[in-house]
Amino acid sequence: MKKNEFGSAVDGHFDGIEQFEADLWKVADNLRANSNLASNEYFMPIFGLIFLRHATNRYYEAKAAIDEDIAAGRMPDRPLIEADFTRRRAMMLPETARYDVLLEMRKQGNLGAAVNAAMEAVEEHFSPLAGQLPKDYERFEDDVLEEMMRTFDSETLRKASGDVFGRIYEYFLAEFSKDRAHDNGEFFTPPSIVQTIVNVIEPDHGVILDPACGSGGMFAQSSHFIENEGQDTMERVTFYGHEKNETTAKLAQINLAVHGLQGAIRAGNEAITYYKDPHELAGKCDFVMANPPFNVDEVDAEKIKGDGRLPFGLPGVNKAKKVSNANYLWLSYFYSYLNENGRAGVVMSSQASSAGRDEAKVRQKLVESGAVDVMIDIRGNFFYTRTVPCQLWFFDRAKKRDPERADQVLMLDVRNIYRKVSRAIFDFSPEQQKNIAAIIWLYRKKSDRFLELVESYLAQAIAEGQAATKPLAAFKEVLVKLVDLAEPFATESRDPDPLAETWKELISAQTKVFTDTMAFNQEVAERAADWNKGGNGKSRDNAGLHTERKSLHDAAESCRDLIRQIDLAAKIMGRVADMAIKELDAQNSDLWRNSEIGKWRKSLESARTTTVEALRRTRYFVRQADWLQQRFPDAELCDVEGLVKLVRRNEIETHDWSLTPGRYVGVAPEEEDEDFDFEETLRSIHTDLKGLNEEAAELAARIARNLEELGV
C-alpha cells in the first residue's frame, strides 16, 4: 500500500463535544419545522440565546470567585459593582437577564417579551453591545422558544467553560455557513485556518486590526493565544475591525462579548476599506489578520489612485477604470497598516501568488520590500462554502532589518496535511497546527520551543499509555464474563460440533489478549519509570529526545498489535454467539442465558471501542514526535521535499517573482507505508458514506416537499 509520506488525515483527538454540538443543531431543525421563519431570520436569535447562556455562566462563575475572595478577606464585604465582574471577565447581569431566571418566567406567559427585555437590560449594562443583540423573540411561539431555551439549559451547558462555548459558537457559525443561511457563508473563516495565522504571527500585544473581520473569529483566537501565555487580553491588546455587512458586524460584537472581550467594530459603508481607513490606522498596527473577499473586480480605480496605503502602485486597471482584481489592493493595504515591527497574516486566493502583468509588478515590490515572510499552501475543502485551495501570506516589517532573513521567504506546502471532518470538509487537527507552528519556530531560531513540543508529545504518549491500562482491564473483565457465560453451551458434547473450532479460536484469542496486555502494561511502566528518572525536572536535549522517542516505538507497535488482537477477540466472540443462536438454537437451551449474554455483548463492544481509542491515542502521540524529529533531526530548519524550503530573493526572481510554495518545495516522494492505518481508512470511508446517506435523505425529503406543494 502506497501513500504520500505526510499521510492523509492525521488522527486527532476529541473531547466528546462533537455529538453534543450535533444535538444543538437540532434546535435549528426544530425552527425550520415549527416556525414560519426563514433561516436568515432565526440565525441571530439562536446566537442571542447562546450568548445569554454563556453570559449567565460567566456571571455565576465570577460571583462564586467574588464570594470566595470576600470570605478569604481578599476583598471587602460591600455592595458589588460592575468592575468586580469585569475584572473576572464577566458582566454584572441584572437578575431578569439571567438565563435560569428567564426560564422560570415562562410560567407567567409571554416568554418572548421577557427575553427581549433581558437583551435590552444587557445592552444597557454593557455599552459595547448597545443595539447589537436580537430583540425579536416575540415572533416565536412560547412553546417553541421554551424548547429552544431548554436545549441550551442542559447540565453540560450550565457547567461549560468559555472554551466550550467558543466551540459551540463556531460550530453554529459553521453549520449556518454550510447551509448558506447567511450571506453565503462568506463571513466565516474556519477556526483551524485562523489558529494557523495566530500561531505564525503570535499577536500578543498592541493594536490588532482585522479590516474584513466578519464574525470576529480572528480576535477570539488571538485572545486564546494571549491567555495561554498567562496574560490578560484586554490589558495587552486593542482590537479594531471593519465589516461592511451590518448583521455580520453584530455577530462580531456578540462574539467578542461571548469571549469576554471588547473591540471597536465599524460597519456599513464607512467600513468599505477599499476607499477609506475607518480607524485611521495606517502605519500604526502591530498585527493585521484578515480573510478578505477574493478576486473582487469592481473597485473604482479613480477613487483610490492617490491612496497612501498603496505604496507599490495600482495593479491592473481595465477599460471601465475598475481595478481588474482587488487581491493586491488588500495585500498593499495590509502592508501599509503595519508599523515598522508589525506582522500580518492573510488568507488569499491561490491565484494571487503567481498572477502576472501589473499584479506581478506589485508582488515584486512587496518581495523587494523585505516584508514577505512566510507563504503557506493549503489544500481545498477547508472552507465550508468554497472548495478551492487557498494560501496564507505572512508579512513581517521587522524582517528587513535582520541580515540573516532579510532576503529570505519561507515556503511551506501543507496540502498533504489535513484531517477529514466530513466528506466535503477538512481541517487541521490541534497537533497538525502545532507541527506547522514548530516549523516556523525553527525558521525563527527558536529550537527550544520545537524541543518542548516534541517532549510534550512523548510525555503525552506515556500518560496515554498509563491511562490505557484501565480500559484494557475493563475489556478483559467483560470478555471473561462473556466467555464464562457462553462456556456451558459452547463446550457441550455434540457430534459433529460446528462450534468447536471457533470456540478454540476464541480461547486462543482471549489468551493472546491477556499475554499481550501484560506485556504492554509492563512496557509502559518501564517507559514511564525511565521517563521520570531521566527528566529530573529539566527539559531534555535533542539527542535525549531522539533516544526517548525511539524507546517508545516498541510500546507504539504493541498498541497497534494489541488493537488488532482486541478486535479479533471481540469479532470471534460475536461469531461464537451468532453461531450458537443461528445454527444451534441456543435460545432454547437452559445452558444459554440469552438476556445476560445479549447485555454483555453490548458491553463488550463499548469496552472494545474505548480501549482501542485509548491505545490509538498512545501511538498517535509517538507518531507526532516521529513526524517532527524525522523531518528535522537536528532541531534546525532544513529543506524537506514536498513540505518546506527556505528561498532567497534571487531564486524568487528567477521564477517571475512567484510566491507559490509548490513551485519551490517540490513533490514529496511516495514511500512504502509499513504502518498503513486500515482503521483510519475505514473511518474515512464511513465518513464519506455517512455524508452521502445524509445528503440523499435530505434530497429525498426536499423532493417530497416539492411534490406535495405541487399537489402531486
Written account of the structure:
The longest helix is centred in the middle third of the chain and has 44 residues, at 447-490. The protein is globular, with a radius of gyration of 29 Å. It is built from 24 helices and 15 strands. The strands form four sheets. A nine-stranded mixed β-sheet has the order 4-3-2-5-8-10-9-11-14, with helices on both faces. Helix content is 55%, strand content 10%. β3 (237-243), α12 (246-258) and β4 form a beta-alpha-beta unit. α16 (430-443) packs antiparallel against α17. The two termini are 52 Å apart. 40% of the residues are buried. It is an alpha/beta fold and 712 residues long. The protein has helices spanning 17-34, 39-71, 82-86, 99-104, 111-125, 142-151, 155-158, 162-178, 191-201, 217-228, 233-236, 246-258, 301-304, 327-337, 357-368, 430-443, 447-490, 500-535, 542-551, 553-582, 594-631, 649-654, 662-665, 678-709, and strands spanning 2-4, 206-210, 237-243, 264-267, 285-290, 299-300, 322-323, 338-349, 372-378, 390-396, 408-413, 419-420, 426-427, 644-648, 670-672.
User: Could you list the spans in which at least 5 consecutive residues all have pLDDT below 50?
Assistant: 1-16, 180-185
- Please give the count of helices: 24
The percentage helix is 40-55%
Query: What is the subunit arrangement here?
Result: single chain
Q: Which strands sit side by side, in order, in the main sheet? A: 4-3-2-5-8-10-9-11-14
The chain-level structural class is alpha/beta
Query: Could you tell me the strand content as a percent range?
Result: 5-15%
Major pleated sheet: 9 strands, mixed
